Amino acid sequence: MKPVIFNNTVLRDGHQSLAATRMTTDQMVAAAPELDRMGFGALETWGGATIDSCLRYLSENPFDRLRTLKKLAPKTPHMMLLRGQNIVQYASFPDDVVEAFVACAAKAGVDIFRIFDALNDLRNVTTAVRAVKAAGKHAQGAISYTTSPVHTLEAFVQLAKEFERLGCDSICIKDMAGLIQPSAAAELVRRIKASVKVPLALHSHNTAGLAGTSYFEAVEAGVDIIDVSIAPFANGTGQPDAFLMYSMLEKTPRCPKYDADRHVTLVEHFRNVYEQLAEFTSRNNERTDVDILRFQVPGGMLSNFRNQLKEQGMSDKWDQVLNEIPYVREKLGWIPLVTPTSQIVGTQAMLNVKFGRWKNIAQPTADVLLGKYGRTPGPIDPELRALAEERTKQKAIDCRAADILQPRMSKLREELKAKGLPATDENAVLYAMFPQQLEAFYKPKAATPPPAKAAPPQQAPTPASTGAGVATESPARRRYLINIDGRSHEAFVETV
Ligand code: CO
Q1: What is the pTM of this model?
Q2: Is 365 a residue whose pLDDT tops 80?
Q3: Distance 48 CA to ligand 1 centre (A)
Q4: Which terminus, N or C, of the chain has the lesser number of Cβ atoms within 10 Å?
Q5: What would the pLDDT profile of 421-438 be if each residue is shown by its tens digit?
Q6: Distance from the CA of 204 to the center of ligand 1, in angstroms?
Q7: In angstroms, what is the span from residue 415 Cα to ligand 1's centroid?
Q8: Interval between CA 388 and ligand 1 midpoint (Å)
Q9: C-alpha angle with apex 449: 444 to 455, nearest 5 degrees?
Q10: Are residues 265 and 395 in the same domain?
Q11: Contact criterion met (CB below 8 Å) for 336 and 119
Q12: What is the DSSP secondary-structure string of 228-252?
């Protein structure tokens, strides 16, 4: 029996889940060579919210971070989390932008691309998988795990098979909300292992306290890889700590070798960093939260949701809003709650409670109803779809959202030139996703305000939406900034 492989997430999901993605490259530098010596299967160092955070809060070039970490940790493969056609944003991008992004990331040091689509619509991952293979890198297909009447084990096994057929080199069960129960983990692992040849990873969060035990059961059932982190950027809403998992598995046949002394050195380092990031950490993220089991929503979403309701003067509506979430999910075809759909469902649930059901439909909700995020796992409520068509004066689409987008790379390079910014491919793909942030990055430093600390950003979203373009505020449209998953999310509300 082969030992299970530990992937380490401390430099990406660890601080994204527990410190609002604020760890700087400087805070990583001392740890990177040590992490490289630990023998992890992969170091997750990039993607997810880190690229946004580098530009928005840390005045860092995300590609430079990747190159730095790759140089300091050259032995272990580097992994990134890629949201398929959304790259690392919330809307679909044209194929040429996705391809250029993957090529740049591969060149700068990403070895393993973990690719997922929030709706598990595989049409939204095919371009990314193809681009990764073209770059000669490892494509890992990630299944967005959730629970709902339409998310059966059989459906997940089918997805795993389809990922393998697409050419993925491995599969990941991505349990972003920490919902997977030990028995489900064991059963799912057993069935996927029996159906595909490529290695299988399990990624979970200890939000509800289930992840360690679910990992243990998954290892018993034959999972090849589990994602672990390093305390204090572990446990709670993050991945289980590596040493915790090692202890749990010790004296079992699949326990890997693990250097406990070096782990202690790393914990000391990260403890200091955690202190330095105190203003971004929260006790709510550190403890296990059974609310997530009651409401089946991701932990990061829960903690930020509390603040959001407070800002909206709706603190007393906590239970009501959370109870509205499954209702909204059902009407929206049981979409999984993962970035960006967690924000969309959460925002809409709040609006439904505040104004009455569907009195106000936020633009991103309308986009889901119109098929712009892809095919939903269950059917969308037809009356609600008709209402969205009527309100937006748009027709729902059946095709892949990116099929109606024009290639953008040459235009992006032109725009960069016109602004006097270096028109490299790296800048073009960043500019496609984060135009204002990239411009601010290149402004003379003296003129740039210091990176925002605690306050959520007030910038408008990028104009890359596949929806009705950039919404503006007017007497009939009110703008709400909704902070979910540690990121400010803009919702325009039609007042009818
Ligand atoms: Co995660």
Answers
A1: 0.88
A2: yes
A3: 9
A4: N
A5: 999 999 999 999 999 999
A6: 6
A7: 34
A8: 31
A9: 150
A10: no
A11: yes
A12: EB-TTSSSTTSPPBHHHHHHHHTTS
